[in-house]
Structure formats: C-alpha cells, structure tokens
Amino acid sequence: MIQGTGSGAGKSLITAALCRIFKDEGVAVAPFKAQNMALNSYITLEGGEIGRAQALQAEAAKIEPTVDMNPILLKASGEMGSQVIIHGKVHSTMKAQEYYSFKKTAWEAVKTSFDRLSEKYELIIMEGAGSPAEINLMDVDIVNMSMAKHAKAPVILVGDIDKGGVFASLYGTVKLLGKSSSHIKGFVINKFRGDVEILRPGLEMIKDRTGKPVIGVLPYIKDIGLPEEDGLALQKISNFKFQISNHARIKIVIVKLQYISNFTDFDPFACEPDVELIYSTNPADIENADMVIVPGSKNTVKDLMFLKESGLDGSIKKAFAKGIHIIGMCGGYQMLGKKIYDPHCVESPHKEIDGIGLLDIETAFDKEKTTCRVEAILNGKWGNGLMGNSEVKTIHRFTDSPIHRLKGYEIHMGQSRGDIGLFRLKRRMGEWVNGSVTGSQIHRFADSEVIDGSKNENCWGTYIHGIFENDSFRREIINHARETKGLDALSSTTSYSDIKDKAIDSLAHIVKENIDMDFIKKIIGL
After folding, report:
1. Which residue ranges does the chain devote to CATH 3.40.50.880?
2. SS3 assignment, position 30
C-alpha cells in the first residue's frame, strides 16, 4: 500500500508506476483505492463510475478498469454535501456527519470489492487517501490503515519534500499513528530537487528516529504528461500555459469554474504542438481566445450563477459574437442552453434558472445519473468541415472513419431536449455486477442508441466526455480554429494514447531507478 503524509504527495502516480513495473515483469497486478474523493471520474465497461486516477492505474497495469478498483467515490457538491457513489452507482448525497455514520455499510462495500479483486490478481497495489494520521478521523477510517490491516499489506509512506518539512511530516505521521505505524515498512521522499548527497544525513537520522528506512528519493518531475488526480492541480493554475512551440498557436481558454469536474477532458489539447491551453476567469482571455470551452461541473447551477454574477456569461456571449468557437462539455453544455430545470432540487434550491442562451436546448435534472461508455458518429449540422455552417451532413450509420467514429463516455444527471442531433450515440451498457453486501448478481443490459449534442453557428456542446481523446476529431477541431484565424491547417495527428503510454513507461523507469525495488519485492513476498 502506498500512503502519503498528505494530499498531493504523489501516491496516485507512484501506484501507477508500480502497476506498470510489475506488469512488465509478468505479474498479474491491479490497483485499488477503497475510497476516493475526486471530481475527475471515469466510466467502466459495465457503466460504473470510478476515480480517474484508478482508471489510469488500470491502464498502467494494462487491464480494463472495474468498479472494484475504487468501490467508493465521493464527489463534493458544495453545501449539498458529497455525492456518494458505491460500486459505480450513486447511493445518495450526504454531509460529512451522515457519511461517517454510514461507515459500517461503506466498509462492507470496500471489503467486498477488495476480496473480489483478490481472487483475480496475484498482486494488488493499494493507494491511501490524504494522510493516515488524521487523528480526528481515525475511528472512521476505511481507506488508510484500516484497509492495510484488512489486506495485511505492508505500507510505504510517501512524503513531498517540495512542500517543505518532509522529515517532520514523516516522523509526525509515524508518531501519531502509534501502534498502527508498524505497518509502515519504509519511506519514499518525492519531488526532490538538487544533490541527493546533501539529503543523505537526514535519511540516516529519520531511520534512527523511526526505525524505518528511506527506500527511495524521487526527483521532481516538471511535466510528467499524465492526468492529474483532481482540482489540487488547478489550484496552481491560473493563466498557466501548457504548451509553447514554434507553430503559430491556437489559444484555447477553459473557463475555470468553481466546481469544475473532469478537466482531464482537455489534457489531449496540451499535447498538441500548436495549442496554448489556459484555465482562466479573466474576461480578456475569454474574449480574445480562439476557442473557449465551458467545462463540466459537479454543481452546474451554482457554476452558472457564478458565471452570471461575475459577468463571465457576458464575456462568453461577446466571444461568440466575435466568431470565437465556443464549446460546452457536459455541465457546460447545459449552461449554454436556454433553461435548466431542477424540480427535485438535485443540485440546488433553484427549481428553474435561465442559461446563457447560446444553444437552443433546455435541460431537466432527474434523480438518476446516466453513466455509460459510448460510441458516436457525426450526425448533423457539421457541414463544411466539422464546424462549418453551409450544409447539413447526416451520417445514418457507424463508419470506420477516425473522424466520424468516436469513443467516449457519459456522466450526467440531466437530460436535454430541443435542437439536438450533432451525434448519434450507441450506449454500451455491457453487464453490471451488483456487489452489494447481500451478494453479487450480474445484470446484462442491451445497447441503446440516442442522439446527443447541439450546435448554433460557432457554438456547440455535447455530453461526451473523452471526445477530444479521438485524435483525428481533435485535430479537425483545432484546424478549423486555425483556418478561422487565417492559418494553414496542420496535417499531422498526435496520438494521445501513445503519448500517455510513453509517459507511464517514463514514470515507471524513474521510479524503478530511484526506489529500492528489491526491498519492495521482499516485503510483498515476490
């Protein structure tokens, strides 16, 4: 088990690296995180929602992600509390005290998933959450030491030296844990800059004081090229420029919402040589972009109100009037419509609110969440190129064209109606494993076809997460923005999946070179 002295210590990526290392050595390995709090989520083949980090770790292990790899996902929804997702499906929305009272049920769900996963794989690399030494929460812990004890798993504790005070945080964690610290077998210091020889006296002293060795010092990696775990990364990003190259660049501005979710949707743009990607709430950025994207949100109504109160809705309308390409993703798609109805007060006390009004759609929230993998084809109003307005191109069947045949996934509470029909979706429902404490049952669902997406001149929106991971589609979108700006289109297509896989290999190599792998193999019995 990889635990950390706090959030952002590097647990997720180290877990991913170890998954790749052991997979490459022929071990059947899988990741596991009992409980994750994240707004970046992913949909498994069976239609279950898990943390994006566990999906990446499964990718590192070269296996298909399942709900058992992250049995409990918490998605913060502001004053409403957190949406509690168990075995991939929404259970309820709870405030902190309600959830802590729910511990016994949650713990049973966690154990069910872990035991089921244990039957399939030789090795499970578990990830903790936050710090295991939150002394006010130890009695309700189901993700750190309680999980290590249940799995009889040795623990490696990771400390972030870039934040400062790494020895104090390692030592303090051990002392606060008391007897439970016996599960910790060694330390890893992460994000080190400089000469490791200068650090060496401290490594010896922390071993003397705790009896536990430092088994590795990992260097600070500026641009790892892999999706970040959650909004912690965006706290450091304001007008941060991801990409600079010699190409004439297209400036893409992601509106930095207060409850932004699934911002990993836009990571593929950062891999393009001619894209400058910015997260911003600066009106000047929005009004002078080449493309503006309103992203997904865990609280669409609150973020829509934020846009109105800050005047950013006006900036988006000005950008639209100037011919700037406007794209809405999921919650952003809903915001760009005319109305949002919330009759059951799923997200807020507001039962009705006006949208920004650029798309001729209305959205009604319901109590059921749509979660499924999809295949999509372009289905209408794209015309000249993908973003043209001249003539309607309708494709009535799935084709093999990389531009016309797309893959992604849906995660949304609302259903939209109105001028819809950009895409024809085939929802892949697969089979659902009900892993409740009363037993496991398999339910099979038939695929279904629906239409999705709306377009009005230079504005369009969709529910399809992951749509920009389709390389040819992404390049076509960028090229149309280039042509609008009077720039030549680029013919080369960047393979996002290849870039991501090479980044995992690179991360695994760094970890393997800087951590005592023999020590790790010894404590897990390999």
Report:
1. 248-489
2. strand
